[in-house]
TrEMBL record:
It comes from the Bacteria. Transmembrane segments: none annotated. Residues 219-393 form the L,D-TPase catalytic domain. The keyword Cell wall biogenesis/degradation applies. This is L,D-TPase catalytic domain-containing protein. The lineage of its organism: Bacteria, Pseudomonadati, Bacteroidota, Flavobacteriia, Flavobacteriales. InterPro entries: LD-transpeptidase_YkuD-like (IPR052905), LD_TPept_cat_dom (IPR005490), LD_TPept_scaffold_dom (IPR045380), Transpep_catalytic_dom (IPR038063). GO terms for molecular function: carboxypeptidase activity; transferase activity. Belongs to the YkuD family. Keywords: Cell shape, Cell wall biogenesis/degradation, Peptidoglycan synthesis, Transferase.
Amino acid sequence: MKAILYFHVILLAVIQISGQNIRLDLFLADTANWRTLHYPKTVKRFYEQNGFKYAWMDSEKDLLQGAVALLASAPQYGMSSYANQPQEFSAEKLKKAAHPTTAKDSVAMIRNDILITDQLITFLNHLHFGKYNPFYKADEIDERNIDGFRADEILAGALRKRNLQNAASEAQPKIKAYQDLQNYLRRTFSGDNEVPPETVTKIIINMERLRWVDTDEDSYILVNIPSYTLEFHQAGKISEFKVIVGKPSNKSPVLKSAIHYFTTAPVWVVPQSIMMKEILPKILKNRQYLTNHHYSFYNKEGHPIKGNSTTLKAVRSNPSQFTVRQSAGPGNALGAIVFRFPNPYHVYLHDTSQPNLFHQEYRALSHGCIRVEDAKQLAGLLLTGDGAANQIPELEEAMQTYTRKDFILKKPVPFMISYLTCRIHQGKPEMFRDIYGLDKNLEQKFPN
């Protein structure tokens, strides 16, 4: 209510200066007027593209109604309705505001035009990035172009074509898992599917999660933590692999990155937490553990040092000055190959020296990294997709002999780790165990 009153005060001030001719450019040029808007900079860019003309209140009736109808249809896209103030967008009030005869009517006209624009842009941004995106905050989305997406450009284009539904279609994620959920939800709203409310909620929260990791590329790798699977989408074909993910106490992170290269015969630099909690106690109990498992101590300069009693004493008193590395070979925790992708969590995708674990149904067993079954096959598919299938024999030789070699991709492949407790499989919802207990919090943000 305070925001609405503030909006009225500002608009009346503009009217007093310029009479009945309320100028959108002057109003939006004053940043003090932005506080009632969710994406003020994006709203301003939209009106710049529209020549600072009214977009909805001074247009044909069907366009205005289309804007309000699109906001009201948000639940069909797995979102809460954005026409959440029906008294503000009632047909009678909009009709009166679209034909101002007094200063008060002019206030309503500009106010509703800007509010509708901001609501549409908010809807499009939420549809593309998600409402609760952990990677991008609203002010960052408002400020700049992120991965080529600009809600103002999409809305302006839809306005020119007089087809607002196109804006929603263009903003939505293109990733297959999302499209499957969206299509099923749309059929549910049209009455084609009889679905329990709790299943609808699962679909909605997992659509939200997929907005956080979407990609426009046709080839990509999607890891899903709850299903313990990795999908490589390539040229319309999907290759599925089993994976091992982080334990609930060492959760694998949700992230969006790209695989740039992979390395055979990797050396494992043991993280400090694992060194202190797991490796060092075993070494202290039996010094032969170092040799038996091919571990070595290194000082902060990166030089190897002997694992004698003096070193162990120094490590115990000042562990941050030392690292432990495991040399390449059959017993290396990373296996014969590791796939590298930039991320702030220091996790990677890799082979394993314990392939028997893939036979288990419950595979939340790692310290956070993703272990993949048939890593050689995955590497071969990456090389083939990169136009380097001729390097596969070299890859196989390097893995067989534990020879270190980097295979650099000419075009990095998008790599995403997601947390999906529901997907559409063979036309029906398939549920997965919520192994990290993350559903409840998100479900509360999307009441059915």
